[in-house]
Design goal:
- There is one protein chain.
- This protein is an all-beta fold and about 70 residues long.
- About 0% of the residues lie in helices and about 40% in strands.
- The chain is built from no helices and 6 strands.
- It has a 4-stranded antiparallel β-sheet, with no helix packed on it. The chain has a two-stranded antiparallel ribbon with strand order 1-4.
- The radius of gyration is 12 Å and the shape is globular.
Length: about 70
């Protein structure tokens, strides 16, 4: 995920050829889910969902191959 920190948009790139699809969610610092993606089949995506959000800390979780990763 880059850039980190970001002000408007971020990109998620998948470099693992064994991962064919993934989804991601964005949480505010209080743990409230503010966005949940559909399943993504591309190797990378760029999202601008933070452009209208207040400045702050957000947690992004990525689910791939039934495993959950967070940043």
């Amino acid at each position: 995920i880059y850039p980190n920190p970001t002000t408007h948009s971020f990109t998620i790139k998948n470099y693992d050829e064994h991962i064919k699809k993934f989804s991601y969610a964005v949480y505010n610092i209080e743990g409230k889910c503010i966005y949940q993606s559909d399943e993504i089949i591309e190797a990378h995506i760029t999202s601008d969902i933070l452009k209208d959000m207040p400045i702050g800390n957000y947690i992004i979780t990525i689910k791939a191959n039934d495993k959950l990763h967070s940043t």
